[in-house]
Design goal:
The protein is 47% helix and 10% strand. It is an alpha/beta fold and 546 residues long. It has a six-stranded mixed sheet with strand order 1-2-13-12-10-11, with helices on both faces. Strands 6-5-7-8-9 form a five-stranded parallel sheet, with helices on both faces. A hairpin with a 2-residue loop joins strand 3 and strand 4 (116-117). Helix 7 packs antiparallel against helix 13. Bound molecules: 6-O-phosphono-beta-D-fructofuranose. The site of 6-O-phosphono-beta-D-fructofuranose (F6P) has 14 residues, from loops.
């Protein structure tokens, strides 16, 4: 890549300045930082696109922020952002543009790829999705036996599942309650069987979601769904047209499967799987919340896109959070980030973020193939609060690892119930406070603890966290949150000079599985792998009793 700097970013002057600075500030405790600047919590906060971010509980000074901004500039973040929005082929290893931002561009916007404006095509698909969703939701679309569709089963995996299932759970409050939504992803037959065991075939619509329409898990599940559907509908092949739709970029494979392209909703190779929940891959979301709800979601995405594209770096939420994550990862050595939504509807948000962040930034080489020279994507994980507090928070508070946390809370509950919401939010604020300030041995002693117990009850503190507050979980708020994390990922990738949009790391396992499949047949020749893999295959053959 001609525009990739010759050296890893970690060998540049901005990184060196940060390393020197880190050595100077790493011993400073958040207790001191707040004491010496009583207004720190009011200063180190940022509000944009309806999201309030408190980042004061990070182990940073004003100088840290300046140096991080310097790193972003030196790494060419501005140029990378412009290149993405311009439609440049910044996914270099696959030779593709990266334009999930076009999926939420308003009608009338212009975004060019290979000399053509892609926005009209986006809205054409959205309009078809809206029309289809309306017909299904209203009951105008009839199944093979004339009954309306009450059950929707999305079949997909990775980006063709995690976004849809996360969005359905997140927006369940707004969903059609007279319909059932299920999601099948795993090639483990249990997933399909359990998802369909109480459904009637004549009321069930399958959405086969696959960008490539070749993915083993999805195609296996799609064929089982076809068999299940036909078995329940008397074996009449013509039933498929009423009970199957496809979302894909591969029209040929969709037709070959037996789904008419009239029942196919397309998208484009410039939409990465993990960036596709706002494309036609979101068809189940639209069926659940309606076309207006889906458009509200897209508007939320777009608001964050515009903020990311235009706000100066110091006031740019994704840039700031991306830089803070990098500071914790590359300078403090934090290997993971916990994302802790205090909102039950966001229970699948951490799982969604795992693919977004780790499939994007789990890379060891730069755009030009040279070694990246520093740690890249941290492990993302999390659970909704307050559940996690009674499980893994112990390790975050008193373990030996540094685990930066992103807390997410909302001002209003979608289900007000007594004082539940105050109790929930009191816990978010308490956790951030406890992590930052801890409890000193003196404080523990003053409470009357015997000396031997003091170390056990001491909280070192100085654990960094961000707290994000939004008014209410709406479709727009969800769009803003997802776009925020998409651009956080982008910011870090731009600084490391890695390709956040390919996923070669998933290929080897897929290829080896194809080789192993025929070897699992008891009558097949002896497997030809290493001794461990051979023995496992042999034992499986015995265990399955073939
Ligand atoms: O796991 C690799 C991957 O290619 C993901 O990036 C993608 O989201 C998923 O598989 C599903 O791919 P498809 O939508 O083509 O079935």
């Amino acid at each position: 890549m001609s525009d990739t700097p010759l050296k890893p970013v970690s060998q540049g002057p901005a990184w060196a300045a940060l390393a020197t600075h880190h050595a100077q500030v790493k011993q400073q405790h958040l207790r001191q930082l707040f004491k010496s600047d009583p207004k720190r919590g009011e200063r180190l906060r940022l509000e944009a696109a309806g999201i309030y971010l408190d980042y004061s509980k990070n182990r940073i000074t004003d100088e840290t922020l300046q140096l991080l901004q310097g790193l972003a500039k030196e790494a060419g973040l501005r140029e990378r952002i412009d290149a993405m929005f311009r439609g440049d082929k910044i996914n270099v290893s696959e030779g593709r543009a990266v334009l999930h931002v076009a999926l939420r561009a308003p009608r009338g916007a212009t975004i060019m790829v290979d000399g053509a404006n892609v926005v009209p095509g986006v809205h054409e698909v959205l309009d078809r999705m809206a029309d289809f969703s309306e017909r299904v939701r209203s009951g105008a679309w009839k199944g093979h036996t004339g009954k309306r569709i009450r059950n929707v089963v999305n079949i997909g995996i990775g980006g063709s599942d995690l976004g849809p299932v996360m969005a359905y759970e997140a927006l369940r409050h707004y969903s059609a309650r007279d319909m059932t939504f299920r999601f099948v992803s795993n090639v483990d037959g249990t997933d399909f069987v359990e998802a369909t065991h109480d459904l009637e075939a004549d009321e069930t619509m399958f959405i086969v979601s696959s960008k490539t329409f070749t993915t083993l898990e999805t195609m296996t599940n799609a064929h089982s769904a076809r068999d299940w559907s036909l078995a329940g509908l008397g074996g009449d092949e013509s039933a498929v047209a009423k009970h199957f739709v496809a979302v894909s970029t591969n029209a040929e494979a969709v037709s070959k499967f037996g789904i008419s392209t009239d029942n196919m909703f397309g998208f484009w190779d410039w939409v990465g799987g993990r960036y596709s929940m706002d494309s036609a891959i979101g068809l189940s979301t639209m069926l659940a919340v309606g076309a207006d709800g889906f458009r509200e979601l897209l508007a939320g995405f777009h608001e964050m896109d515009e903020h990311f594209r235009t706000a100066p770096f110091e006031q740019n939420l994704p840039v700031l959070m991306g830089l803070l994550a990098l500071w914790n990862n590359n300078f403090f050595g934090a290997q993971t980030v916990a994302v802790l939504p205090y909102e039950q509807y966001l229970k699948r948000f951490p799982a969604y973020l795992q693919q977004l962040t780790m499939e994007s930034n789990g890379k060891h080489v730069r755009l030009d193939g040279g070694p990246v020279g520093c740690d890249t994507g941290p492990v993302y994980w999390g659970e909704p609060g307050t559940n996690g507090q009674h499980s893994f928070y112990q390790l975050i508070h008193q373990g030996t690892r540094l685990i930066p946390c992103d807390f997410i809370g909302f001002g209003q509950s979608l289900n007000p119930l007594g004082n539940h919401h105050d109790l929930l939010l009191a816990n978010v604020f308490a956790q951030g406070e406890a992590l930052a300030f801890g409890k000193t041995p003196e404080e523990v002693k003053a409470e009357g603890s015997p000396d031997w117990l003091v170390p056990h009850r001491t909280f070192e503190g100085n654990r960094p966290s961000n707290t994000l507050l939004l008014e209410k979980l709406t479709p727009a708020a969800l769009g803003k949150l997802v776009a925020l994390y998409e651009h956080i990922v982008f910011t870090q990738a731009a600084i490391w000079h890695i390709d956040a949009f390919d996923q070669w790391g998933v290929e080897l396992g897929k290829v080896l599985a194809q080789r192993i499949i025929p070897e699992l047949d008891a009558k097949a020749a002896a497997p030809a792998h290493d001794s461990s893999t051979n023995a496992l295959i042999e034992r499986y053959r015995q265990l399955k009793g073939a």
